[in-house]
């Protein structure tokens, strides 16, 4: 089976490439904007592909002819999207249209990564039938992306997820776990929200669900996240405890006090039964996920 991944330099993209290349009988095409930043460049193909560049997208699809595309690439910085809605529209809406059109020409099953932010957070946790009501430009753009995929005429699967954490090869982007760990190690104060609730998702777990959906050509909407609902500050405290760091540098703030550019849902979290049933999805607990992060960081130190 031939599988193409967009955004292969991203946190999820890297994990999918590593997990897929370890499987036999699969031809993997990793694609990203700019150079390949994955350390291990063996066992898969790589092509530069800016998803906003329609010509480049068609050229890569037409040459590789994927049977399945996993579309992870996106403008993921929620506040940057709020401040630059035009770029957000290009990255998350128009680019998704480019991809679905190229996929259609090649009769390709399409997997789209979406977000808990499509919900307004007043009635979380959510199942797949809950009605979206996005509160921000980013959230609206991901919901638009979902609609493009659903109306594309392709066979499709939408996988919605919630704050992804893990270790990437290049560490170019941070995530909640690395941000808290690095800040506390440097004895830097961080202001952490007390009144927003999420289910942190281990990147490896999510990658596994995406791969299962690809191999089975699963169709429909799936909610895929960790199975604990915690406030953001509880997540930060757990990180501090796990790595034995001083919690005094964590300054509690409310959503109102932090006053970020983009509005966020207060309480999300997902019911994940459907993914457990159909995608063989059994997420690690946050403590187990943190143990994996710690192991990977220490292996990296040994390597370099
Ligand atoms: N991260 C979360 O907590 C979270 C939560 C819910 C849903 N999601 C969704 O899950 C998916 C994966 O998230 P992630 O954490 O892996 O995000 P990420 O680490 O920010 O990776 C996104 C990747 O998309 C790439 N990208 C952006 N614009 C592009 C373009 N025009 N052409 C090609 N590549 C482009 C970025 O490239 P560069 O590296 O070159 O910038 C980056 O590598 C996204 O669709 C996101 O919306 C994420």
How confident is the prediction overall: mean pLDDT?
97
Number of helices: 11
* SSE class: alpha/beta
Low-confidence stretches: none
Q: What is the strand arrangement across the widest sheet?
A: 3-2-1-4-5-6-11
Radius of gyration: 19 Å
Cα-to-Cα separation, first versus last residue:
35 Å
Query: What would the principal axes of the Cα set say about the shape?
Result: globular
Largest sheet: 7 strands, parallel
Bin the helical content: 40-55%
By CATH, the architecture is named 3-Layer(aba) Sandwich
Characterization of this structure:
The protein is α/β, with parallel strands linked by helices. It has a single domain (2-174, 199-228, 269-284), classed as 3-Layer(aba) Sandwich (Rossmann fold), CATH 3.40.50.720. It has helices at 11-21, 54-64, 78-83, 85-105, 137-150, 176-185, 203-216, 232-242, 255-258, 273-278, 286-303, and strands at residues 2-6, 27-32, 45-48, 68-71, 109-115, 156-161, 164-165, 190-193, 197-198, 201-202, 220-223, 230-231, 250-253. The strands form 4 sheets. A 7-stranded parallel beta sheet has the order 3-2-1-4-5-6-11, with helices on both faces. A two-stranded parallel ribbon has the order 7-10. α1 (11-21) links the parallel β1 and β2. The longest helix is centred in the N-terminal third of the chain and has 21 residues, at 85-105. The protein is globular, with a radius of gyration of 19 Å. The protein binds NADP nicotinamide-adenine-dinucleotide phosphate.
